[in-house]
Every structure is written in structure tokens, then in C-alpha cells.
Write a structure and sequence with these properties.
The complex is a heterodimer. By secondary structure, chain A is an all-alpha fold. Chain A has one domain (15-133). In chain A, 73% of the residues lie in helices and 3% in strands. The model of chain A has no long low-confidence stretch (mean pLDDT 87). The longest helix of chain B has 24 residues, at 3-26. Chain B has helices spanning 3-26, 38-45, 57-60, 65-71, 87-96, 108-113, 124-127, 132-135, 155-165, 177-183; strands spanning 83-85, 101-104, 120-121, 144-147, 171-174. Chain B is built from ten helices and five strands; from the N terminus they run H-H-H-H-E-H-E-H-E-H-H-E-H-E-H. A five-stranded parallel β-sheet of chain B has the order 1-5-4-2-3. Chain B is elongated, with a radius of gyration of 21 Å. The model of chain B is unreliable at 59-70 (pLDDT under 50). Chain B is of the alpha/beta class. Classes of the chains: A mainly alpha, B alpha/beta. Chain A binds chain B through residues 30, 33-34, 37-38, 41-42, 48-53, 55-65, 68, 74, 76-78, 80-81, 84, 99-104, 110-115, 142, and chain B through 1-2, 4-6, 8-10, 12-14, 16-18, 20-21, 24, 31-38, 40-41, 106, 124-126, 128-129, 148-149, 152-155, 158, 161.
Chain lengths: 142, 193
């Protein structure tokens, strides 16, 4: 099993998949910072004063990470950042579920309207796993 | 972990985001947002909830109560943003038989299980992906009161803001939501949308 997870094709597949998810999710949010800021607010995890900054900056960071993971330059840094962000998103969703929040995920902007819940949590755990696999088998290049 | 590279990527993303937003702030129409999130805070937290005295049972047993009540529906003013209302305000409208568009923002299956009498179901999840549903609303100038699953549930506020941005007014949200309504023993109805 661990051997399969370390297979070059699996690792590359995970990395490309995560890269595409990050680019799509980032672009979806860039179009409507106002809505995304409200969704960030709904998670009630960060101080209100910082919510807009997160909404302004985070989608672009996601896109930059996705692009670097695809083009190959700074791939290792991108892969590790994607793992850290995915872990963070998963914790946010888990906190929302644990506190019984009935809120929009905002993961893909307002485009999908998905709500925070068990399904979203499982989805995030799987993506985090994929991001982790994506960090493996990268040499020490940049 | 390649810390240096990671910091660089974050910095690049942050700069791109800030520049993009700065362009949005200068554009017409403005699509950037302020760096510090105070405006949205004001929308929800600085407005005192509109309240009225709870219904007096001695008056409502009066056969003329309906006539008296007709003139005394609580006014939902429009302070230039969605406004919170207490359970007493919503109860007054429900008792009156309407006078407002009452909107249940929860999922259809939750709505079917039980909802406040007279409420129509407009699931936030569906409305947010289909703005035409808001554009199709005809209130005839009546106020809109939105509720969902209580204080922990934010979709009534979000829907209120979406209504407001779509030009509908006055828009109110009832924060206590269904849990408070049920706890007070107020009437409920069931049935699919």
C-alpha cells in the first residue's frame, strides 16, 4: 500500500490534481472578494479586522501555489505550502462541524454553494492526503 | 521543508492580491474591498435589533384585536443595511397573518420538517448560485424577514445582505431563528415547499 502511494505516477497525479484544485478554487474566489470575506467571517476563526486581508490575499496565494506546482519551478515549496494550506482548511472545516456551524464553505467561492459538513470534511481530509503524497519524491531542487 | 521558497511564494501571492484589490478599489464600479474588515462588521453588529412588546394575551383575546393589530404592526425601518429583529417582531407579523415576506433560508428538507407559519422556503445554498431567484421576488413594498437555524447559523444574515444588494428593502433577519421560536412554544407548520 505504502509502495503504491509512493509510485511516481500516483505522486505526480496527486500533485497535478492538487495544483488544479488550488488554481480553480483560487480563481473562483478572486472574482468576488466581498463574498469570500463574508464566508471567512462565518467561520469565526480569525479576528474580524484580518478577514478582508485574508480574503484579498489567500486566493492569489492559492493560484501561485497551483501554478508553481504545475510549471516545476519552486515545485517543492508549492507542494509543501499546498499541504500546509490543505491542513489549515481541514482544521477550519472540522472546527465548523464541531461547533455546529451551518455555513457556506466558500472553498470554491460562491460558485458551488457547498455547506460545511461531514461530506466537506471527508473531501478535505482526502485532499490533504493527496497534498501530502504530492510532497514526496521531490528532490532537494529549490 | 523549503522555508525560503515557501515564504517567497506566499509573498508573491500576497502582493498580487493586494495590487489586484487596490486596482479594484480605484475602478468604477468598485470591486475591491477595504483592507480592514470593519464595514461588514458594522452591517451586522452595530445595529440594535428592532423590538416590540411581546403580544399581550389580554388584548389578543379581545374580539377587536385583529382590527387593533392591523394598525400596530411593528415598523421595520430601513437603516441602509439589513437590520436584526427580535422574536416579538416576527411573532407580531405571523399573528397578523402576514404584512411581510417571511423567508426560511434553510434546506428544503429542514423546511418540510417544520417552519414558521407563512414562511416561504428560499434555501441560501440554491439562491447563492442562482441570483435570478432573488430578482424574481415581488414584495409589493412589504418588509422581508429572514430566519434560519438560530444564532449559530449565518445564512439568514448572508441572504439578507444578498437581498439588500439586489435592491430589496427593508430587509430584516431574525437571529434567534427556529430554535428560539420552538423554545417559546410558538406555532409551527410542516410541509414541502
Amino acid at each position: 500500500m505504502m509502495g503504491l502511494l509512493r509510485h511516481p505516477w500516483v505522486v505526480t497525479g496527486c500533485r497535478v490534481g492538487i495544483a488544479v484544485v488550488f488554481i480553480v478554487a483560487g480563481l473562483a474566489k478572486i472574482g468576488d472578494a466581498e463574498s469570500f470575506a463574508r464566508q471567512v467571517h462565518n467561520f469565526q476563526l480569525i479576528p474580524v479586522a484580518f478577514e478582508n486581508l485574508v480574503a484579498i490575499v489567500l486566493p492569489w496565494i492559492e493560484v501561485v501555489i497551483g501554478v508553481t506546482m504545475l510549471v516545476g519551478s519552486r515545485r517543492r515549496a508549492g507542494a509543501w505550502l499546498s499541504l500546509i494550506l490543505m491542513a489549515g482548511f481541514t482544521i477550519a472545516v472540522a472546527a465548523g462541524v464541531a461547533r455546529g456551524l451551518d455555513i457556506e464553505c466558500g472553498c470554491f467561492g460562491t460558485g458551488d454553494g457547498a455547506r460545511v459538513g461531514a461530506v466537506k470534511l471527508i473531501e478535505n481530509v482526502l485532499l490533504t492526503l493527496a497534498a501530502w503524497i504530492g510532497t514526496t519524491r521531490l528532490g532537494q531542487e529549490d | 521543508m523549503p522555508t525560503g521558497g515557501m515564504l517567497m511564494l506566499v509573498a508573491i501571492g500576497a502582493v498580487l492580491g493586494l495590487v489586484y484589490n487596490a486596482v479594484g478599489l480605484k475602478s468604477q464600479p468598485v470591486w475591491g474591498i477595504p483592507w480592514i474588515g470593519e464595514d461588514r462588521l458594522a452591517v451586522f453588529d452595530d445595529v440594535p435589533a428592532i423590538d416590540v412588546k411581546p403580544p399581550d394575551p389580554t388584548i389578543s383575546s379581545d374580539p377587536l384585536a385583529g382590527l387593533v393589530g392591523a394598525g400596530s404592526l411593528p415598523q421595520i425601518v430601513n437603516p441602509g443595511r439589513p437590520v436584526p429583529v427580535t422574536v416579538n417582531v416576527l411573532k407580531a407579523y405571523v399573528d397578523h397573518g402576514s404584512g411581510a415576506l417571511i423567508v426560511d433560508a434553510r434546506d428544503p428538507d429542514e423546511y418540510a420538517e417544520s417552519h414558521i407559519p407563512g414562511a416561504v422556503n428560499m434555501p441560501y445554498e440554491e439562491v447563492v448560485t442562482d441570483p435570478e431567484r432573488i430578482e424574481a421576488i415581488e414584495t409589493g413594498g412589504q418588509p422581508i424577514i429572514i430566519y434560519c437555524g438560530g444564532p449559530e447559523c449565518e445564512i439568514s444574515r448572508n441572504l439578507a445582505l444578498d437581498f439588500y444588494y439586489a435592491g430589496l428593502e427593508p430587509v430584516a433577519f431574525y437571529e434567534g431563528g427556529l430554535p428560539e421560536w420552538i423554545a417559546l412554544g410558538y406555532p409551527l407548520v410542516e410541509g414541502a415547499p
